[in-house]
């Protein structure tokens, strides 16, 4: 706590952030049902295929999330019955996916699509680096759990709920009370809890940056 | 204390480090393109600020441009708007743009090096995961998302945590018919598509040292396919020779000064890596992928793995992958029918790739029922190919030489592979639907792709006569 509040001061947040509202504050944590997609190595081409990257704004990507896994032959009248996002028994703002989630292309459109669809948390046993940053920069929390804990979640019934507590860095299966710890650096944690954004911070240290440029010649 | 190449460059670019947090990393060069930049410019405009250091930004249009009739207006409305938005943003923010029609236009990771913008010891970013390509020059180069593109535009800095360090050493001599693409597909098949996640990967060893710059770029390009934060190779005489005299490389006194610095950029003898791998060049044969991630590759003479023989990491995905690909466990990949051949992308579209293919196909003709697209990486590559008469060789072979762009690598423009069709591709990703919804991609070297173009099936390039015998 102490280091986090110290950090909070050092970030010198200015108030013009364009970031989403903070969504993980509060003592109780964030409680939701979850949508399981038990597939490993889900790449960003699956999350949002390239043909949808022609937009020049960030809005509206949610309807094309997992487009080619959701529909037969790109036809919205033919949803694939076996894909969890099409199955009415699954709901919630937590996506649970197999390991190495978000590999491949750096397209932030993948994070925009997840956020726009309504996911606030993605749980996996492993995240690709670029996706992890993109998610954090859009208020989507990547929760990396052990493979064992991930499999426990996959084995739960569709009615169960999970609690994600960013402050304590824990994720809990509410029916059993089983819990796993997840890593996030203090800086990013502070940003997410307070709705801060990296650009605000970087702009606030511009003098340091200019000094650095002068010194290196 | 002994330092790695990565650490030497990293430490020189730290503006400051946040307690228990990331470092503020200064970025020397920022490449932008039409697809991942518009929202970043909107962000700047919303904040009422301009690009901080426009002279350190270089722009081109590549991902979403047609590869035929580039002199005409882009037909597809959204694509046209995206490219026009880039032009408008670059004008407003005073950024140099090598746009459509410019003699330097091309794939961002091809033009950076060929213009001499990419240099050793730099930090380089771009809103594209294959930015790792530039690491071939002994620089820290990595892909970023659009929020980070905005950060770099606003402040020329990024917040980054230092990755772990990995070294992959490949020693020995490559066999005939084996090129750099085979090296990287081989490494991927051994360490898997997530084997380097969280690491900066340095490639070293005699087999790497013997490669040309183009070949080194192919390897660093695909370090992201292992999950690597970046891939890098220490600069040497081959590097300096390549950069010298390029349009935007240092000149005169500045060249000498740069050279002195560049020569200090290597991993010290006792430098410690968090993880090391060693491979022998002699063990590598022409490679091809059979599955839906780039780690799912085998030698062209091998059989597709079974659930018993595959590495643990890909076990659960094997059936799904093979069902998508329409291939069988345990069967040979050689002889698999091919419908399309795509030679292009930031992985393999440089002049050396085109020369290799041209030397191989000279006097041969493509199989009747195969469509072959050659998409040069840049206008300069295209012009050089024409100058050398390579275009004529392709024409006689029945190959179609198109205009520069990312093209069928990601199927964002109209260059898509139809559903269910097989494409042997020199690009970097065989993900489901990557080259078009339902398209089936087999990744291979330009040589293996050229051999398939001639026979119409997956073929060991060593089994066909090759007049050149030159190695990449």
Report the end-to-end length of chain B measured between terminal Cα atoms.
36 Å
Shape estimate of chain B:
globular
Which spans of chain B of ≥5 residues are poorly predicted at pLDDT below 50? none
Oligomer: heterodimer
Helix content of chain A: 25-40%
Strand order of the largest sheet of chain A: 1-6-7-8
**Structural category of chain A:** alpha/beta
Number of strands of chain A: 8
Order of helices and strands of chain A: HEEHHEHEHEHEEEHHH
Low-confidence stretches of chain A: 1-6, 12-21
Q: Which two chains form the greatest contact, residue counts included?
A: A-B, 58 and 70 residues
Kindly report the average pLDDT value of chain B.
96
Our Rg estimate of chain A from Cα atoms comes to 19 Å
- Mean pLDDT over the residues of chain A: 90
Number of helical stretches of at least 4 residues of chain B: 16
Secondary structure tally: strands of chain B: 19
Query: Strand share of the residues of chain B?
Result: 15-25%
Q: What characterizes the major β-sheet of chain A?
A: 4 strands, antiparallel
